[in-house]
Design goal:
This protein is an alpha/beta fold and about 300 residues long. The protein has 12 helices and 12 strands.
């Protein structure tokens, strides 16, 4: 019987699907230390991760019988992909399960900022009824630039097409046909034309720090920038400086460079993050764009199906 180690809690559907296909699921106790994880990797053919544990060279070597490593979610940066590939281990994620949640969250953040919902709500809570000071801006008619047209970028584009917007996208790695409502573009095109920029790329050596202050200084339209992908795409100090210098009309951030491994904690002591948190043109959420009741089920179900496919 094949065995799969679950390092962090997943929806029950994951275990149910494995068991229905004759695969045993082994759940690590909560708050297990790395030493316990390494020991538990012995004798299993698959491992299911979320965000807390790294499958680096040491961990991969500990799994002497490993055939598959799956991540519940969209990123694979916690896995040493090159080394796993060398050892013939198949690696995969489950972005299909939470891309809808991220897309809806991005639109929610944009509407919150553009229609001054947070500001006007806070004023109403204090008994301030200020109509003249809370005029909004409509999403319709804007040019939206999407960086990364994978599962999540595509889900966002699909939901935006009915909003009377122009959608430009950059993705040199896309192999599927492009939707007819999305125009292929370059990063330079987005810098010159986009009213809104939304990033949906994985964190790799190529993308780390790609949203630099130098890159932002070449923006033409002073767009609203959205990062609901990975905090490592930008330094908080660069984003704060771009807001303060008027290079951006606003920021919607769900991910931050100060996040700890596992995304469960944030270094609020960061001066740059404090500048962002206190800025009236920034909407910040705690890395929850991909978390919803539906996505909790979705990422677990998708991951289970892929794990079964790889192991059987």
């Amino acid at each position: 019987m094949k065995r799969v180690l679950i390092t962090e809690p997943l929806h029950a559907i994951f275990t149910e699907k494995l068991q229905q296909n004759g695969i045993q699921a082994l759940q690590l106790p909560p708050n297990s230390e790395r030493k316990e994880v390494l020991n538990a990797l012995k004798g299993v053919q698959g491992v299911a991760l979320r965000s807390r544990f790294k499958m680096d060279k040491e961990a991969i070597d500990a799994g002497l019988e490993l055939q598959a490593i799956g991540r519940a979610g969209s990123g694979l940066e916690l896995i040493d992909l090159d080394y796993a590939t060398q050892k013939g281990i198949r690696c995969f994620n489950s972005p299909e399960g939470n891309c809808a949640s991220v897309a809806e969250h991005v639109i929610g953040m944009l509407l919150t900022l553009m229609h001054q919902i947070r500001k006007s709500d806070a004023e109403m809570q204090q008994g301030i009824f200020d109509r003249a000071g809370n005029w909004g801006r409509e999403l319709g008619g804007k040019t939206i630039g999407i960086v990364g047209l994978g599962h999540t970028g595509s889900a966002l584009a699909s939901r935006l097409q009915s909003w009377n917007v122009r959608i430009l996208a950059v993705d040199p790695y896309r192999t599927e046909a492009w939707p007819d409502y999305v125009q292929q573009a370059s990063l330079s095109d987005l810098q010159q034309q986009a009213d809104i920029l939304s990033f949906h790329v994985p964190l790799t050596d190529e993308t780390r720090g790609m949203i630099s202050l130098e890159w932002l200084q070449n923006l033409v339209q002073k767009p609203i920038l959205v990062n609901a992908a990975r905090g490592g795409l930008a330094r908080s100090s660069d984003l704060a400086a771009a807001l303060e210098q008027g290079l951006l009309e606003g920021l919607c951030l769900d991910t931050f460079e100060e996040e700890a491994l596992g995304f469960e904690a944030l270094g609020f002591h960061s001066p740059a993050l404090q500048r962002l948190a206190g800025h009236p043109k920034a909407v910040l959420t705690p890395h929850v764009a991909g978390w919803s009741q539906e996505s909790w089920y979705g990422i677990s179900a998708v991951l289970a199906d892929k794990m079964i496919s790889k192991l059987l």
